[in-house]
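Sequence decides. Our protein:
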Amino acid sequence: MDTLIVRPEIALDQFLPIFVESTLVLVFGVGYAAVITLSKMGYFSKKWMTVGYLFWVLQTYFLYDFAVLIQSNHFTMKVLMVTMVIYLFVPHLYFHLVDEAERRYGDSDDMIEDIKCDQSYEPTAEVIEEYTFRCDSASA
């Protein structure tokens, strides 16, 4: 016996609203990510983050409305909304991790540049052995 999955038909008069709302989900999602990223990087002032959060709210609303229009089941709608909440925090987590890495490893980049620029630098036998070991284990 074959299993039959019955999906509701999407009415032809609903095609344009579905297309527009799914496009707005993408546009507001990119707007949210761009505004939050540029604010965190210092290209925009922190006041612009409010606009980014407004984009997130609009994206969440249009995603919910889109899910209603295509007649998604309740489980799928809950998963979409949980995903949107996670999407709210991901950029903040990313920049927190970048800041922590800068705080922890910030001076090591300067040290490497100093070594590259110093022509009189002669590596010790231990440094050569460590470099050779790393290269050999990376190629294996």
